[in-house]
Amino acid sequence: MLRCFSCGGNRLKDVRDIEDDDMPIRSSDSSENGSRKSSLSGKVKESSSQKGNMARSFTFRELSTATRNFKETNLIGEGGFGRVFKGHLDSGQASDAFPTSISFIVAIKQLNRDGFQGNQEFIVEVLMLSLLHHPNLVNLIGYCSSGDQRLLVYEYMRMGSLEGHLFDIEPDKEPLDWSTGIKIAFGAAQGLEYLHCKANPPVIYRDLKSANILLDENFYPKLSDFGLAKLGPVGDNTHVSTRVVGTFGYCAPEYAMSGKLTLKSDIYSFGVVLLELITGRKAIVLSRKAGEQNLVVWSRPFLKDPKNFIRLADPMLQGRFHVRTLCHAVAITAMCLQESANFRPFIGDIVVALEYLASQSNKKSSRGVPRCPPSPSPSPSPSKHSSGSFSRDRDFGSFSSI
């Protein structure tokens, strides 16, 4: 039975009212759909008023002013559901949790108005983040549902996403060191453990990827974007049947093939993120040659033989890691990426393992990290692309047939 041991936590009964994959929420001028929109917006406001420290409702004018009318220079991110702007909320515009004398920076996500998926994501995210609170989950400060506008206001995460520190790194920026990478993985795992084991019923994140792990100025990680989150199985149920959504390259194979979603689906996605951290390679790169486009497929031969674990190390680390901790991290990754969901570990076990690795990485860092021995296929020093970003590429062609 795929479930965590029962833990205390917030009851998410309110989400069941709208968490229906077949719910036809669309942008329309019809009175019927307009009525549905008003009803759903009411659910958000009703849920948000049930507890203290809940998300505040902003007017569109307030958020437009905060972003200087959504000026392009304030654009800090863009995804499948909309664009994210850096905004400045003046004194008095914050929630009661903030002193009125303070002005602060926020991140404002403006959802796409085309199609129904963005509207459903908006509702689910407001409800989820109003009911779920953990240091490794991003804080939702407020939202706007004026007319056909759907905006979400989050705490501002200064260092952006984990993805931005792993790939296409600019020449003036340092790549993540090994110790920081392990700490980020540990923190992300703690956030996932809260969703799986502390929330009641458990929550399946369903969109775990490096782009959704945000970092503050101290590289403390927080999971974000909960619009695709789904309530997990309860009682004797082993899975939830749902439409297949998520990001190509991160979805568990059994979920992608059958639509059967379990907590172990998130574990597979977490394994892909670990693999990205270890290798410095994206989950999917279609520009690579056949056999190397999908990171998991390419890594399978290495994951099967501990003697090849070292070959997965990101060349931009330049050997600045302890071989044993790297091998342990690869072993954890291999377990998360088991094709059979039943063989993947529970998130609680992953948290314990990563906590140990993080403590070991700290010890090694404090007294100097030994360089790893030469790999059977030595990698060159980091060079620069013609585009001006660092390169992690090396000749893995000889490994692809191992």
Automatic annotation (TrEMBL):
This is Uncharacterized protein.
